[in-house]
Specification:
Distance between the termini: 64 Å
Number of domains: 1
Helix content: over 70%
């Protein structure tokens, strides 16, 4: 049925959004830790 297909599409887009959000969060955390490491090196 089309209802089932719509539900499948919604689940797929939700999964994609979750993956994108996780990747962005990882990038942000990585850049913050890199900035922190650079700051520590500068102080040392």
């Amino acid at each position: 049925t089309t209802e089932y297909r719509g539900r499948e599409a919604m689940a797929g887009s939700a999964r994609t959004l979750a993956i994108v959000a996780w990747m962005m969060m990882a990038l942000v955390i990585g850049s913050i830790s890199a900035v922190d490491a650079g700051r520590e090196e500068r102080y040392l």
